[in-house]
Each structure stands twice: as structure tokens, then as C-alpha cells.
């Protein structure tokens, strides 16, 4: 037979004894003096560093020439100055708006939002029909694919601090090319029959809609042309090789984007989804501004 159950008085006595022993251990630990560790402070001379930066790159007679400025800041000095002066009169309101949300309190995110709001309408717009026609002619001359508007693909950017509740949406491959295409408005005009009016001739037939080269994961839409699976014969194999070579353009574009902005090469460390989108869009806009400033049109 087991031991008899404790009475209320015995149970209270046991609790008091355990509490007394815990209080004695806490008092003994508090009596031992502990070393107070202070955080190490290193003077960095922020004011002097800012003055040297202005002397080296932004003075009337800078120490470093234009090519070194371009290598460090990834853009020319006139373009850098244009962006800075354009955002200067808006930067304070962006910062105040961010602080009011209680979420984005840093100047960095305010800068990304400013780039998106100020320069987005010009450098993140849809191409005009004339620009589409020039792109089509360029790809026809370079890759010998009449009617090709370009290539489509996805670049995956790891989200390191993705919230646990959203983890299944943005990890383990669930956010693949198909999901991105379904949530993107890039082909809404094509689905409504409102795409750009272009013209090209293939095999004696004139067409009014272009197409994009894509891999096998994309749906069977007329706007997508996929590589031949297991091409048989020298002619089909040659066609597949040429098509795969042309599709490398979009991968090279992603490579240039990541090489230009180091933040896109590392896992995204911000917490909020909107901030991740602002960073990516800001990098794309700045990339397009640099391309236009340096005179590299899409045809080149």
C-alpha cells in the first residue's frame, strides 16, 4: 500500500520549507559581489569622417577622380547628386511618416520608400509600344528569334527573418515561379488583350503580339515559348541550344543587379514583407537610372 496523503497542514509546511530554502539561496547569491562590466566605447569621429568624405568625393576639387567615385558609389557623381538633391526636400516627411507607423524608424527604409515614390513612376513603368518594337527588332537581330520580346525568369531572395506564421509561404520552394506569376500583374494586359501593338513576320505570317522565352515550369500560354524537351535531330538540338543561350540574358541581368547591390546577395534580414519589397524595388529603380545615365539603351 502507498503512503497516506498529506494533510493540509503538512502540505503548507512543505511549501513553506521549500520557499525558505529558495529565499536563502537567493540571499546568498545576492551577497556575493559581482563585477560591473561597462560597454566598451570607441570614439569614431563621425564629424571628421563626414568632412573627409566630402573632401574626397564631393568638393569642388575632389581628391578622387570620377572613375573611383563610380567604382565606390556604383553611379556617376552627377546622378548621385541628382538623387540626393531630389530626395532632400522630401526626406524629412518620409522619416516622420515612417516613425509614426512605429514599424520603420530608420533612415534607410525611408530612403527606399523615397526612391520608390519619387522615381518609380519614371523608371519602373511599362515600356511604350515604340520601345517594345525596338526590343523586338533587337532580339531578332541578335538572337535570330523574330517576335521575341525577351526572357522571363525568377530570382529568389532568401528571407532570413521570415515570421514563423508565414514560413510556409516563403520557404521550402513553395514560392516558385508559378506562384510569382500568378501574383504578378505583368501579364494582365496580355490576358485582357491590351498588350503592346507590335509587328513582326515569321514564316511569311505577320503577327501582332510578341512572346517571351521561358522554361518548362511556366504555363502553356501563347506569350511563352519553351525549350524543346529532348530534341531529336541536329536541327532541333541546334534550335534548343540557341534558345537556351538567348534565355541567359535574364540570368545575366539578375547577376548584374546582385553584383551592383550587395544587399541583394545576402539573406534579407528585415522582418516585414513590405520592407523587403521596398528594398528590392529601390535597387531595381537605381539600376535603371544608372543604365540610362550611362547611355546603355536596351538595344545595346
Describe the secondary structure blueprint for this structure.
Elements: H1 8-31, H2 46-58, H3 66-73, H4 77-101, H5 107-123, H6 129-143, E1 148-151, H7 167-170, H8 177-182, H9 188-191, E2 200-202, E3 205-207, E4 211-214, E5 224-226, H10 234-260, H11 273-293
Parallel strand pairs: 1-4, 4-5
Antiparallel strand pairs: 2-3
Question: Care to describe what's here?
Answer:
55% of the residues lie in helices and 6% in strands. The termini are far apart. It has helices spanning 8-31, 46-58, 66-73, 77-101, 107-123, 129-143, 167-170, 177-182, 188-191, 234-260, 273-293, and strands at residues 148-151, 200-202, 205-207, 211-214, 224-226. Strand 2 and strand 3 (205-207) form a beta hairpin. The chain has a domain at 129-270. It has 11 helices and 5 strands, in the order H-H-H-H-H-H-E-H-H-H-E-E-E-E-H-H. With 300 residues, the protein is mainly α. The strands form 2 sheets. The chain has a 3-stranded parallel β-sheet with strand order 1-4-5.
**Overall shape:** extended
Q: Kindly name the structural category.
A: mainly alpha
Note the gap between the termini.
Answer: 93 Å
State the oligomer: single chain
- Sequence of secondary-structure elements: HHHHHHEHHHEEEEHH
Helix-residue proportion: 40-55%
- Strand order, sheet with most strands: 1-4-5
- Strand segment count: 5
Count of DSSP H/I helices: 11
Strand content: 5-15%
Mean pLDDT across all amino acids = 82
CA gyration radius, whole angstroms? 30 Å
* Biggest sheet record: 3 strands, parallel
Amino acid at each position: 500500500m502507498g503512503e497516506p496523503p498529506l494533510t493540509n497542514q503538512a502540505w503548507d509546511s512543505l511549501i513553506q520549507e521549500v520557499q525558505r530554502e529558495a529565499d536563502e539561496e537567493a540571499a546568498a547569491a545576492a551577497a556575493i559581489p559581482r563585477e560591473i562590466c561597462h560597454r566598451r566605447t570607441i570614439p569614431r569621429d563621425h564629424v571628421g569622417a563626414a568632412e573627409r568624405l566630402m573632401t574626397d568625393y564631393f568638393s569642388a576639387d575632389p581628391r578622387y577622380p570620377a572613375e573611383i567615385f563610380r567604382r565606390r558609389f556604383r553611379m556617376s557623381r552627377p546622378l548621385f547628386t541628382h538623387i540626393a538633391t531630389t530626395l532632400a526636400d522630401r526626406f524629412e516627411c518620409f522619416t516622420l511618416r515612417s516613425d509614426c507607423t512605429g514599424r520603420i524608424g530608420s533612415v534607410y527604409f525611408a530612403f527606399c520608400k523615397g526612391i520608390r515614390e519619387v522615381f518609380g513612376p519614371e523608371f519602373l513603368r511599362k515600356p511604350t509600344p515604340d520601345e517594345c518594337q525596338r526590343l523586338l527588332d533587337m532580339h531578332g537581330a541578335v538572337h535570330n528569334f523574330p517576335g521575341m520580346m525577351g526572357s522571363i525568369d525568377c530570382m529568389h531572395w532568401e528571407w532570413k527573418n521570415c515570421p514563423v506564421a508565414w514560413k510556409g509561404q516563403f520557404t521550402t520552394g513553395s514560392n516558385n515561379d508559378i506562384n510569382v506569376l500568378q501574383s504578378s500583374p505583368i501579364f494582365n494586359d496580355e490576358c485582357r488583350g491590351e498588350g503592346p501593338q507590335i509587328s513582326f513576320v515569321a514564316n511569311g505570317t505577320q503577327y501582332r503580339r510578341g512572346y517571351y522565352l521561358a522554361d518548362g515550369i511556366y504555363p502553356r500560354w501563347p506569350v511563352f515559348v519553351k525549350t524543346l524537351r529532348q530534341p531529336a535531330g541536329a536541327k532541333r538540338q541546334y534550335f534548343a541550344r540557341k534558345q537556351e543561350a538567348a534565355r541567359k540574358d535574364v540570368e545575366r541581368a539578375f547577376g548584374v543587379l546582385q553584383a551592383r547591390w550587395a544587399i541583394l546577395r545576402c539573406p534579407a534580414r528585415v522582418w516585414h514583407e513590405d520592407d523587403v519589397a521596398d528594398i528590392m524595388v529601390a535597387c531595381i529603380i537605381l539600376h535603371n537610372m544608372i543604365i540610362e545615365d550611362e547611355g546603355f539603351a536596351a538595344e545595346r
